[in-house]
Design a protein that fits this description.
heterotrimer; A mainly alpha (228); B alpha+beta (276); C mainly alpha (591); A: 228 residues; mainly alpha; Four Helix Bundle (Hemerythrin (Met), subunit A); 5 helices; 65% helix; elongated; B: 276 residues; alpha+beta; Immunoglobulin-like; 5-stranded mixed beta sheet; 3-stranded mixed beta sheet; 10 strands
């Protein structure tokens, strides 16, 4: 009862030969060439960059999920769960981070306007980018101040599990924010350069990362407030 | 070895290896020796369920193993090295195979799962009965110690900072300040009466350890910081080895004690002798 | 991040030795670098296993050369109990991380995934280079543990707390050695995450014209699925290692409870949970073993199809099964912890998906077996290793069925039964997949053929040898032979030593057989006969590159166009009985 193998494949028509999901070409995305190659930036790797950042954010989210579950389990087994008072500066830091997301979005809008050739002045976008960087640095500095405040209360990393988790969560987050600042620096350098100019996907990816850091912080703040 | 021969050699080899692998399982001994390669005699009340499950699984898994290797061998014999034959598909194609896998494995899994739940439940879901003999076990690098409550029926508290092996204070008892600790009996052997339920309370002194007695069909980790316990009833007098099965450091291989199952009379005599 | 990728279609070939072969952005070179690292790791791990096996059956005899490895650990060449455990820890760590995560996945995947989808390189070549060199740094950190004061850690590759967390009080090697382990694995996680990122983005976004997801070869799917599993798994191990290192050097108590008296030292830690480490570790650890096997499943499927000259009974089903395995792998981690003291009800909860995962694995096995029927199976070194893989996968998988049941696990947990199970699936089946891939893809990577006779002998000896080593492990387990013992001194273990002797002889025999492979690999690289462009008459894109090895941009400046799925075998065409994916030809009638 053996059957013969597959029948001959059907006629291949054009639709089978269309480009599928990011073929090698890519092409210019959202940027209109306007006399002078400076502004017309080909973005052939736009798709993978955008995919890449979402994948990276998924991994980062998973890491923090693991830390969150560690927090819950550790609380469950704890004999020494002493609630700590969150340093008030955290609220200020949060505002700074949220503000930095706003300034980043404004910066993106300005960059797009510039890239479309509707604006020839680099200074507005640069200003907003600088503000974002500044607010990011304010956030990190503020987190450090929060650490100092805890230390002044005698709460160090090993003191009790609450303080341990506080330092770990805020520390790991701050490291990622510093990474984001690095990304922003890169964006700013490229924006100013004419040799290897800024691609839209670079800016997009950096922005998604930055906003994610903001949202992640708000989630962490909530967890810290509820649990610690 | 040209192509054709290779296929035939593989086919013979895989079938021979599969059959050879089955021999020690069936004979329960290593080839041509009397080295026993099976679980030892079961001396527990719950062990028969475990053994039944093991036997059933061995039958199903063993038959699946042999069948798969046989089919592999037969197909490679038939089609290995075959040149320019007419290509055929397995009758029914993938569909029937998927269904077969779903049914076979699904049925096996459900059956064994259901069986296993009962056995698991008898070990873990039923608490120790109220009149079980309570014994404390402590595991530490690299020895087991056991403690009985003594005539007052109460255990003294454990103080890790007071542990002093040189003076045989293995549990860190404080008899001076802790009255129930005064008559506690410490032993390097787990001595128990036969046919009596034992409630073993397990305490880890330093790192993770585990309590394993093959004949009792019991295994349970000692976890530092957790109050764990097991309960069991031994049905046969004799001496059995308790070994540590959770990697605990350099002496892990040597960490053992004896389970000494005695008649109730002998046990009572032994216990009395310890108190003196 | 887009700057990390090469400039579009026009990146120029690198010049200079350093840029070409050391800090290369070329995924092919990076793949070879991973393979080389895997080779070093597997040889090291294998030598460690020889020392272990020899020590187990002749515990008081000096083993040549070991005293040079450690004067303290093996004075006069006689391995101490603690050093045995250190060797065991390093063996496991090297094999699981640096061999089984590297070779089938990072090495072959890096080399062939971009080519098989018609791309010029990975999406992010600079991240790719970073991921290899980061892996290399992790390797160096791990190996350095051999040379520090107290030696390598002895807590096993699983590094359970508190043994691994309290520091040097718990044993030799638990000082700096264990911290280095923690740092090494931390760095390895980062490298893995970078690698997975690349695989995912590349597969989703860089497929060439006509290469739909459905037209990707099974091994491409396997690498893609593996990278998805890997992304989430290593993302959990990373913070776990961080917390472990903090417990060790930062004085925290994530995993260390109160009141521990270790070696007469009262530990200052309070309230931590050893089970927390187990949960975090195994949440990573179980998907990790599927990361080890899924690429091999893909490679074996691909090579088998080619050698059978006919497609599998259903490719979709194989791919769906791999996806199912990947998905289910996240639900079963508790089966490593049935007896750990976690809630016994959870044991039943974990047991169910563990048993269910047998279903896709069985389906795949039945499809492989069923596809052999009616095929024109070519026998060569590569196809033999594929057949060996199927045999081993069945053998190893079947023993898993025992361990999936908590009741049976009461008896078999922590015995050699477990060791036999995972060695058969990981240590043999996955490695056979790597061997098959090596013999198959060697002509494409080097332009030369490996010696077929040596390849077959390598197979026969390895197949017999690995069965001889690992089958008896199961019997020992049934007798209750406890694992991770450096010597067999218990009453019930002494009679089993003759079985261990047999295993040791088999291990040394099999180890020697691998020399055939090493010789073949190196000799053929330089002196092997020249290979034709497509010696196996395979349909996938890597065989359509203009040269072997492929040029730096894989297709010589041309963007391939794909017209078919990769399973056009048994069809009449101008090339013979197959149609390459890039061939615009239509198949004639079936022969």
């Amino acid at each position: 009862m053996a059957t013969t193998l597959q029948p001959p494949p059907v006629q291949l028509d054009e639709k089978d030969l269309r480009p599928h999901d990011g073929n090698g070409g890519g092409g210019i995305r959202g940027l209109v060439p306007e006399g002078g190659g400076l502004r017309a930036v080909a973005d052939p790797k736009g798709e993978p960059t955008r995919t890449g950042i979402w994948v990276a954010l998924a991994a980062i989210a998973m890491s923090f999920a693991a830390l969150t579950s560690a927090l819950y389990v550790r609380e469950g087994s704890a004999t020494d769960w002493h609630h700590i008072v969150l340093p008030p500066i955290l609220w200020f830091n949060t505002l700074a981070l949220i503000a930095s997301s706003i300034t980043l979005e404004l910066a993106r809008h300005r960059v797009a306007v510039f890239m479309r050739g509707q604006e020839s002045d680099r200074s507005r976008p640069t200003l907003w980018l600088n503000l974002t960087m500044l607010l990011g640095l304010v956030f990190v500095a503020g987190q450090y101040l929060a650490w100092l405040k805890l230390r002044s209360q005698g709460l160090y990393l090993p003191t009790n599990p609450n303080s341990s988790f506080f330092y770990v969560f805020t520390g790991v987050h701050a490291v990622h924010v510093l990474g984001g600042l690095g990304g922003l620096t890169r964006v700013m350098v490229k924006f100013r350069s004419s040799g290897r100019p800024l691609r839209r996907s670079t800016l997009d990816a950096t922005s998604y990362y930055w906003h994610f850091m903001g949202m992640l912080w708000m989630y962490l703040l909530f967890i810290l407030w509820v649990k610690l | 070895m040209r192509g054709n021969m290779g296929g035939k050699i593989f086919a013979v080899l895989v079938i021979v290896i599969a059959l050879a692998s089955a021999v020690p399982i069936v004979t329960h001994t290593w080839f041509g020796s009397n080295i026993s390669l099976a679980p030892p005699e079961d001396i527990s009340t719950h062990g028969s369920e475990i053994d039944k499950q093991l036997d059933e699984t061995m039958l199903e898994a063993g038959l699946s193993f042999l069948a798969a290797q046989l089919v592999l061998g037969v197909f490679v014999w038939q089609f290995g090295g075959r040149k320019d034959g007419v290509l055929k598909n397995f009758p029914g194609g993938a569909k029937y195979l998927v269904v077969a896998a779903l049914l076979l494995v699904g049925a096996e899994a459900v059956a064994l799962g259901a069986l296993g739940t009962k056995a698991w439940g008898s070990v873990y879901f039923q608490p120790a009965s109220a009149d079980a003999l309570q014994v404390q076990a402590q595991a530490g690098q690299f020895a087991f110690y056991f403690r009985y409550a003594g005539p007052d029926g109460k255990f003294g508290g454990i103080h890790p900072e007071k542990i002093d092996e040189g003076n045989s204070n293995f549990f860190g008892l404080d008899p001076e300040n802790d009255i129930p600790a005064r008559d506690d009996i410490t032993s390097g052997e787990l001595v128990i009466p036969v046919n009596k339920e034992i409630h073993l309370m397990m305490h880890a002194k330093d790192v993770g350890h585990s309590f394993y007695v093959r004949e009792l069909r019991i295994q349970q980790d000692f976890v530092p910081g957790l109050d764990l316990s097991v309960h069991f009833t031994a049905t046969k007098v004799g001496k059995y080895e308790i070994v540590c099965t959770q990697l605990c450091g350099l002496g892990h291989y040597n960490m053992k004690a004896y389970l000494n199952v005695m008649s109730q009379d002998d046990f009572d005599k032994w216990l009395k002798a310890q108190s003196q | 991040m887009s700057e990390a990728s090469a400039h579009a279609a026009h990146h120029t070939a690198p010049t200079g030795f350093i840029r070409k072969y050391v800090f290369s952005l070329d995924h092919k070179i990076i793949g070879l670098q991973y393979y080389a690292l895997g080779l070093v790791a597997v040889v090291t791990g294998m030598v460690l296993s020889w020392i272990m096996r020899i020590h187990l059956v002749w515990p008081n005899s000096p083993i040549p050369l070991v005293q040079w490895l450690s004067k303290v650990g093996a004075p006069g060449g006689v391995v101490t109990p603690e050093y045995y455990l250190s060797l065991m820890t390093m063996h496991g760590t090297l094999m699981v991380f640096f061999v089984l995560t590297n070779a089938p996945f990072a090495a072959f995947g890096n080399y062939f995934l971009p080519i098989q989808i018609g791309a010029e390189d990975m999406a992010f070549p600079r991240f790719n280079m970073m991921s290899f060199w980061t892996t290399f740094v992790a390797f160096c950190i791990l190996i350095s543990a051999f040379f520090v004061g107290d030696g390598p850690p002895l807590a096993g590759w699983t590094a359970y707390a508190p043994l691994s967390a309290v520091g040097k009080d718990s044993g030799p090697g638990e000082g700096l050695g264990q911290t280095l382990w923690g740092l090494s694995i931390f760095v390895f996680c980062i490298a893995s995450l970078l690698g997975s990122l690349n695989f995912i983005a590349t597969t989703l976004d860089l497929r060439t014209k006509g290469m739909t997801l459905a037209r990707m070869p099974i091994c491409t799917w396997a690498w893609f699925i593996t990278s998805c599993i890997s992304l989430l798994a290593f993302a959990v191990l990373l913070p776990a290692c961080l917390l472990l290192v903090l417990d060790r050097v930062g004085g925290t108590s994530f995993f260390i409870p109160s009141g521990l008296n270790v070696s007469d030292h009262l530990q200052p830690h309070q309230g931590g949970s050893p089970l927390l480490w187990q949960h975090l570790f195994w949440f990573f650890g179980h998907p990790e073993v599927y990361i080890a096997i899924v690429p091999a499943m893909g490679i074996v499927s691909h090579i088998l199809i080619n050698n059978m000259r006919k497609p599998l009974l259903s490719h979709k089903v194989i791919v769906y099964c791999m996806m199912a395995i990947g998905f289910l792998s996240y639900m079963v981690w508790g089966h490593h912890m049935f007896l750990s003291g976690m809630n016994p009800f959870s044991a039943l909860v974990f047991s169910f998906p563990t048993l269910m995962i047998t279903i896709p694995a069985t389906i795949m096995t039945l499809i492989w077996l069923g596809s052999l029927y009616g095929s024109n199976l070519r026998i060569n070194a590569a196809s033999l290793f594929c057949l060996g893989f199927i045999s081993m996968f069945v053998a190893g998988g079947v023993s898993g069925f025992f361990l999936a049941q908590p009741t049976i696990d009461i008896y078999l947990h922590a015995t050699y039964f477990v060791v036999g199970h995972f060695h058969m699936v990981m240590g043999v089946a996955a490695i056979f997949g790597v061997f098959a891939g090596t013999y198959f893809w060697f002509p494409k990577m080097t332009g030369r053929m490996m010696n077929e006779t040596l390849g077959r002998w390598h197979f026969w000896l390895s197949f017999i040898g690995t069965y001889a080593i690992f089958m008896p492990f199961h019997y020992l387990g049934l007798a209750g032979n406890v694992r991770r013992y450096s010597a067999f001194t218990d009453d019930f273990l002494v009679p089993l030593v003759p079985v261990h002797k047999f295993i040791t002889y088999a291990a040394l025999f099999t180890g020697a057989a691998q020399l055939i492979f090493l010789f073949n690999l190196i000799y053929s690289r330089f002196k092997g006969p020249a290979a034709t462009a497509n010696p196996w008459e395979c349909t996938s894109l890597e065989w359509s590159t203009p040269s072997s090895p492929p040029p730096f941009d894989n297709f010589g400046g041309v963007h391939p166009v794909v017209y078919h799925d990769p399973y056009q075998y048994g069809v009449k065409s101008s090339t013979g009985d197959y149609l390459m994916q890039t061939s615009p030809e239509r198949a004639g009638e079936t022969p």
